[in-house]
Structures are given as structure tokens and as C-alpha cells.
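Customer escalation, tier 2.

The customer says the design service returned an amino acid string that "doesn't look like it belongs to this structure." They asked us to rerun it and document both sides in this ticket. The original C-alpha cells are below, unchanged.
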């Protein structure tokens, strides 16, 4: 938003386009003089030169004529004295002739050309011209030549005359020029400058007048009147414009400076140009202190992204909203404001307007509401809602943690005995020792139940500290109260868990403790009853809706080659397909919460068929990408083997999808062996004939029978994680694992070890010669898109380069 509203100032000097009368008349007068005087002088001088030149030419002609006449007179006067040898008369006549100013020299020659007399003016001649005349004596008896007379003409007198006349002419010209100039100046002053001065003075009423423009009087000159009329029109228009500007200034003052909003105007260099009155009052700075200061000194943000957004918005003229910044106040603490930058023309050099909203009180209110919502008002500890948020954050970041639920035994009886007020105070006093025992997260989730989160290895030591803290009785209402606590601990397994599910496990364990004698610690164990209870959480219609709405999704857990030279970047063999249910309200639901229910209702067949279809699609894509050696391992339920359903589904898949059947592995558990029917044996053998590989999953945890390993066509054996967890620390487990590996190897089976969570476990089984690894140490189950991105052709090339560099 651009701001460019001038503020009229009556005391300011006249604008540059309106000069003062004195300067305007003086500048015009001298300009006219400089223009007219040279012209007039040049004209007069040129005219004088022309006249003088004409006069000199006429004089030269006259001199020439006179000299010819003088020679003619001499031809009449001199022959007689020369014939009579009257030298005195001849000399006198020649002297008289030489005395003429225009004659430079006089020479008399005899008839033989001998110079007889020569008279010469000592002054040098200018443009001399020689005239000659033969002298002939003639009478009635004689007619004879007596000599020759020559005279040299000079223009020296004429030059002197010309200089005198030129000087006079120059004086005359200067007088004429001066007279004409004075006349012109008087005329200009009377008919031009004086009316223009009055017009300029009339224009200056624009600066000091708030009313209408008074037209200026006309002069006696028609041309000047035209100018004055134009100036009257200009003055009227300028007066109207100034009125509108004053009105706009008043509206600007009312809207901008007096508006009840925090407004800031900055230029293209982010320098503050103006601020609203409310912003000045809020910040404590004066307008003089703010103007000229970079705006980031008044507004600051710790978030560099917000600062970059503001700079980009100001540079490109784009709008920018919802940026929270700190307003630097002078006399009190900084306040938080929300910044809004309207869009503007990025080429506009007049600046931009920033709109600020003081949200300090709003944030304080929100914080108080949040505390009221997340804090237990009695003990000032986080409540159940805060616990859910805390657990969700831990689960999202894949943290490994433990939960400890603490319950006061027989609190209902104690509360009834002490009364509600003392019972509440007892809860507060119970929370204080609990806080002293644990520096981590702690909350009260209702009633007499407290809960803590800690590291897994701190769980037992924490329970001991709590038991010691409550070994002494509490004094309440003048009597000693002995408190006993029931504590339930849980080592959280992040995969597939939700806060509500973890709390249900703790609450079930706490109920079991309460049903006993209480006053004890017990760790949560997911037994079969709990699993059955959680499976019933999802009913048949919910699973059916998930199939219809396509809430099911596939996760892939990588399987790596065990004998890879570098365990930090092992070679990928394939992946195990795991199913998840992404409920729009409950979030991500692991298979343990819906597979049992699906098996009971028979919906596992439809789920299994969908998983096989998706696995076939993935294998086709891998083959197109050139990953012909990767394989997929798919879990199968015993229900799918009923009525040869799994066999028929695999036959249909191999007909419809151009996949290599050996790259598809069907995993079945040992519990499948309990169904000792010939149809099961037949299906397994037929599946193997199709080229599909079979894997025995969770070996050693169910109904283990060595005869089945020999009779049934299993090509792979997966060692359960229960044999892996303690293989580093328990020699018995290590020996048992060695027996299983040797047995499977002797039967020609490949061994896949699942549940690898430590590098040491991988190194032990690598030394035993197993085929593949699978576990959290290498990779957790991940969505299909994440798997494809991680193990794309480009990523596979980078991984190969990493292996070669480390090798």
C-alpha cells in the first residue's frame, strides 16, 4: 500500500516553479538587454560600415578625377614656362601642385626622359596610383613636346578622414543603441515586466490562501493579457488541487494517525517513515524517534523464516500474513504483534504500509486456557489430555521409553475418613515426593492416579526411589497416614502403539494389582487375554468399512543380505509385506488389533487376497525398474488355506501378472502345523510346484516338529526374535541359535533372522552363516512410498558407491 500525501506548510519557502517578483523581473530585464543590445549594435554598425565604405569609394573616385584635372591644367600652364626656361615659375607651380594632400609625389621629365624635378612627401603613401601627362608647347609657329609630368596619388588623408568619420559614426551608433535600449527597457518594464510581476505576486496567494483564487487584473498589452488569463486558469486549478490535498491530508490524519490501529509506513529500504498514534502510545517511542529508524529495530523475530518472508514480500510487493513478531517497547516489556503486509506495486518507490495487531493479551489468554486445559488445577501437574499429547509426541519421534502408573491404595477410604478438603491436600502432598523422585515428565490423570515417563533402564530404580520416599508416614489432621502405592510399569513398544492402547495395558495391569493385595510393583505383560480383548476392539463392520473405504495400507520392512562386507550399508534382498489400517479417527492401527478379529469373522481371506494383489503389483514394478533379484515375503493365515483358497488365489495371480514366482515368498507360522490335514500338505506342495517359495515363520515359538521340516517343502526358516534378544549376553540362547542354524543348513534351508536390534547380534549371526537379516537395527517397517524413495534406482546407485568406497 503506497503512501504519498504531502502536508502543506504555510511557512515553507515558495516552490521552485514560483520565483519571487524581484528575481523574476531582474532576470527577465537582463535577459532582454543581453539579447537586444548586441542585435541593435550589430545592425547599426553594419549600416555605418556600409555607408562609410560607400563614402570612401566616392572619395577615391573624386580624388582620381581631381588629379586628372590637375594634370590637364598643368599641361596648359607648364609648357610655356618650360619653353621660356622660367624655372622660378615652374618650381612654384610644382610646389603648389605638391602641396595638395592627396598628391604624394611630383616628377618632371624632359623630352628624353631625364628627371628634372622630383618632389616627394616624407609620409608613406597608401595605395599609391601614378598619373602621367605629356607637356606640349604650342603656338602659331611651334607645336613641340617640352617634357612629361607624373604625380603619385595617396589616400592617407582619406584614411584619416575615414577614421574620424568612423569614430563619429561609432559614437552615433552607440547613442542610438543606448536610446533604443532605454526605450525598450522602459517599454518592457511598463508593458511586460510590471504586469508579469503583478501576475507572479498574484500566484503567491495560492500558498497562503485557504479560500478561492482571486483572478489577476489584465494589462494594456494583448499578449500579456493572454499570459495573465492562462495564469488565472492555472491558479484556479492549483487552488482546487490544494483544497483536495488538504482534505486528503485531514482524512489521512484521521484514518492513519488517529485510527485505533497499529500502522507503520516504511520506504523501499525498510526505513520507518511514519507511525499511527496508537503505535506510538503502545511502543512508548515518539514519532521523531521512530522516523528514520530501520523497522527491524522496532519489530524483531527469532524465526529466520519469518524474516525472510517479510523481506521477500517487501521486495516483490506480495502480501504477507500471520507473522508474529516482537514489538520493541520503550518503557515496558516487549509486546507480541501479528504483522500483515498488503500487496503493492513492487516498482512503487513511495513505500509500504504495515498493519500490526497486538495479540499479547490474546496469547496470554490462550496460554491460560491451554494451562487450564492441560494442567490439573489441584496438583498443578499435567492432566490426562497433556499425557496423551506427550505420549503421541514420543511415539511420533520413535522414542524408546517406559511408563509408570502410580495408584494410592485404599484412597477412597482415606478420603472418606479425612474429608474432601484434607483428601485433596493429601493428593497435593503426595505429588511433592513423587516430583522429588523423578526429574522427568509427571502428571495426574485423575483421582489418585499419577503417571511418569522415563528411560527403560530407569524404571526399576525409579520404583525403588518412590518406595523409599513413602516409607515414612504423613502427618494429616493430627494423625499419621501410612500410604501404600500400587505401581504398574510398561516398556513401550512404539510400533503400532497409540496412547490409548498403552493406557489400557497399564490400567489392566493396575486392576490385576488391585485385585491382589496391592502395595506392589508389576510390569505389564501382553498375555493372550489382553490380545483377545484388544482384537475385539475392532468389530466386523469396522473391518468391512476399512475394506470398502480402502483404509488398509502396506508397510515394507527391508530384508538385507547377511554376508554383506559392510553391515553399515548391507545389500538389499527384498522386503516383508506388513499390513496396517489407517483409520480416519483412530489413526494407524497395527495388525495385532484387527487380524485376530478378521480371522474369527473370515474377513482375513479378503484381506489376504488384497495383500497378494498389491504384492504382485509391486513385483511387476520392480521387474520394470530392473530389480529382478528382489523378493517379497507375504504372511498367510491358516484360514486362507481353507477350501484351497490360497492356492487358487496364487494360481490366478500368476496368470494375470507377469511376475517371477520365485520372487514371491509365502510365510506361514508353526501353528499351521497343528492342522494335520492332507489338504494342507497338498496345498503347500502345489504352491511350491507353482514356483512360489515357502517360509516357516517364528520358528521355535509354537508347535515345533522336525518331521515337518523334512516332509514339507519349506525353503526358508525365520528365526524368531525371542532367540535373538539375548544372544549377546546369554550363552544358552547363543548355543540354541547355533543349533537351529546348523539344523536348517543341514536340511538345505536358508535362514532369515528377524528382530535384529543391535549390531552385535548381526555380527554373531553373520558368523553363523545365516542368509539374511531383518530388524530395527537396519530399518523399521515403512510405508510403500517411503520404501520406493529410499531404494529407488538413484538411491541404489548411491548405496553401491558408498559400499565401494567403504570396501
Amino acid at each position: 500500500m503506497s503512501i504519498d500525501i504531502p502536508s502543506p506548510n504555510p511557512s515553507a519557502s515558495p516552490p521552485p516553479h514560483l520565483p519571487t517578483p524581484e528575481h523574476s523581473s531582474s532576470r527577465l530585464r537582463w535577459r532582454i538587454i543581453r539579447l537586444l543590445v548586441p542585435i541593435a549594435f550589430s545592425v547599426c554598425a553594419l549600416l555605418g560600415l556600409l555607408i562609410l565604405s560607400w563614402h570612401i569609394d566616392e572619395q577615391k573616385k573624386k580624388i582620381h578625377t581631381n588629379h586628372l584635372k590637375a594634370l590637364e591644367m598643368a599641361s596648359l600652364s607648364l609648357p610655356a614656362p618650360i619653353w621660356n626656361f622660367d624655372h622660378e615659375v615652374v618650381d612654384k607651380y610644382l610646389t603648389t601642385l605638391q602641396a595638395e594632400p592627396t598628391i604624394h609625389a611630383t616628377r618632371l621629365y624632359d623630352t628624353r626622359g631625364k628627371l628634372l624635378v622630383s618632389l616627394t612627401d616624407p609620409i608613406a603613401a597608401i595605395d599609391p596610383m601614378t598619373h602621367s601627362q605629356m607637356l606640349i608647347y604650342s603656338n602659331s609657329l611651334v607645336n613641340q613636346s617640352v617634357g612629361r609630368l607624373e604625380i603619385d596619388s595617396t589616400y592617407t588623408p582619406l584614411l584619416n578622414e575615414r577614421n574620424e568619420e568612423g569614430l563619429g559614426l561609432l559614437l552615433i551608433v552607440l547613442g542610438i543603441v543606448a536610446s533604443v535600449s532605454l526605450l525598450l527597457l522602459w517599454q518592457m518594464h511598463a508593458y511586460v515586466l510590471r504586469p508579469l510581476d503583478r501576475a507572479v505576486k498574484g500566484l503567491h496567494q495560492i500558498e497562503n490562501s485557504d479560500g478561492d483564487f482571486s483572478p489577476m487584473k489584465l494589462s494594456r498589452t494583448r499578449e500579456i493579457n493572454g499570459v495573465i488569463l492562462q495564469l488565472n486558469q492555472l491558479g484556479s486549478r492549483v487552488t482546487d488541487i490544494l483544497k483536495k490535498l488538504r482534505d486528503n491530508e485531514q482524512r489521512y490524519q484521521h484514518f492513519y494517525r488517529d485510527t485505533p490501529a497499529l500502522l507503520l509506513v516504511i520506504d523501499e529500504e525498510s526505513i520507518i517513515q511514519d507511525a499511527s498514534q496508537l503505535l506510538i502510545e503502545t511502543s512508548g517511542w515518539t514519532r521523531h524517534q521512530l522516523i528514520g529508524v530501520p523497522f527491524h529495530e522496532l519489530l524483531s523475530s527469532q524465526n529466520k523464516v519469518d524474516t525472510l518472508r517479510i523481506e521477500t514480500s517487501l521486495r516483490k510487493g506480495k502480501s504477507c500474513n500471520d507473522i508474529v513478531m516482537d514489538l520493541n517497547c520503550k518503557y515496558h516489556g516487549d509486546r507480541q504483534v501479528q504483522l500483515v503486509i498488503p500487496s503493492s506495486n513492487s516498482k512503487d518507490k513511495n513505500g509500504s504500509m504495515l498493519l500490526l495487531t497486538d495479540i499479547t493479551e490474546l496469547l496470554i489468554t490462550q496460554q491460560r486456557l491451554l494451562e487450564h486445559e492441560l494442567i490439573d488445577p489441584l496438583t498443578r501437574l499435567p492432566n490426562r489430555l497433556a499425557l496423551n499429547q506427550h505420549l503421541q509426541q514420543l511415539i511420533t519421534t520413535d522414542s524408546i521409553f517406559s511408563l509408570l502408573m502410580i495408584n494410592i491404595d485404599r484412597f477412597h477410604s482415606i478420603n472418606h475418613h479425612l474429608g474432601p478438603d484434607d483428601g485433596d491436600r493429601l493428593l497435593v502432598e503426595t505429588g511433592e515426593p513423587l516430583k522429588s523422585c523423578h526429574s522427568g515428565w509427571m502428571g495426574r490423570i485423575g483421582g489418585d492416579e499419577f503417571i511418569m515417563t522415563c528411560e527403560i533402564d530407569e524404571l526399576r530404580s525409579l520404583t525403588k526411589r518412590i518406595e523409599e520416599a513413602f516409607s515414612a508416614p504423613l502427618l494429616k489432621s493430627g494423625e499419621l497416614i501410612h500410604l501404600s502405592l500400587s505401581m504398574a510399569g510398561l516398556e513401550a513398544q512404539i510400533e503400532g502403539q497409540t496412547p490409548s492402547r498403552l493406557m489400557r495395558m497399564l490400567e489392566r495391569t493396575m486392576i490385576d494389582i488391585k485385585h491382589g493385595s496391592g502395595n506392589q510393583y508389576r510390569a505389564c505383560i501382553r498375555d493372550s487375554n489382553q490380545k483377545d480383548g484388544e482384537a475385539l476392539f475392532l468389530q466386523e463392520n469396522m473391518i468391512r468399512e476399512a475394506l470398502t473405504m480402502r483404509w488398509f495400507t502396506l508397510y515394507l520392512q527391508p530384508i538385507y543380505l547377511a554376508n554383506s562386507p559392510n553391515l553399515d550399508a548391507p545389500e538389499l534382498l527384498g522386503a516383508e509385506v506388513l499390513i496396517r489400517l489407517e483409520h480416519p479417527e483412530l489413526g494407524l492401527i497395527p495388525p495385532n488389533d484387527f487380524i485376530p478379529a478378521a480371522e474369527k469373522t473370515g474377513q482375513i481371506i479378503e484381506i489376504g487376497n488384497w495383500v497378494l494383489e498389491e504384492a504382485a503389483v509391486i513385483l511387476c514394478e520392480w521387474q520394470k525398474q530392473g530389480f529382478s533379484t528382489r523378493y517379497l515375503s507375504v504372511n498367510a493365515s491358516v484360514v486362507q488355506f481353507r477350501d484351497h483358497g490360497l492356492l487358487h488365489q496364487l494360481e490366478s495371480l500368476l496368470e494375470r501378472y507377469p511376475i517371477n514366482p520365485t520372487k514371491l515368498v509365502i510365510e506361514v507360522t508353526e501353528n499351521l502345523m497343528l492342522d494335520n490335514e492332507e489338504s494342507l500338505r497338498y496345498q503347500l506342495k502345489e504352491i511350491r510346484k507353482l514356483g512360489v517359495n515357502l517360509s516357516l515363520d517364528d520358528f521355535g515359538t509354537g508347535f515345533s516338529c522336525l518331521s515337518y521340516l523334512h516332509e514339507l517343502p519349506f525353503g526358508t526358516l525365520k528365526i524368531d526374535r525371542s532367540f535373538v534378544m539375548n544372544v549377546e549376553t546369554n550363552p544358552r540362547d547363543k548355543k540354541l541359535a547355533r543349533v537351529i542354524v546348523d539344523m536348517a543348513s543341514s536340511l538345505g534351508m536358508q535362514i532369515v533372522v528377524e528382530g535384529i536390534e543391535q549390531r552385535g547380534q548381526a555380527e554373531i549371526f553373520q558368523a553363523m552363516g545365516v542368509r539374511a537379516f531383518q530388524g530395527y537395527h537396519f530399518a523399521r517397517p515403512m510405508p510403500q512410498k517411503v520404501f520406493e524413495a529410499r531404494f529407488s534406482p538413484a538411491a541404489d546407485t548411491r548405496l553401491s558407491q558408498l559400499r565401494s568406497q567403504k570396501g
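Tier 2 assessment: The sequence is consistent with the input. Confidence is low (pLDDT under 50) at residues 1-26, 527-538. The CA atoms of residues 381 and 443 lie 5 Å apart. Sent an explanation to the customer and offered a walkthrough call.
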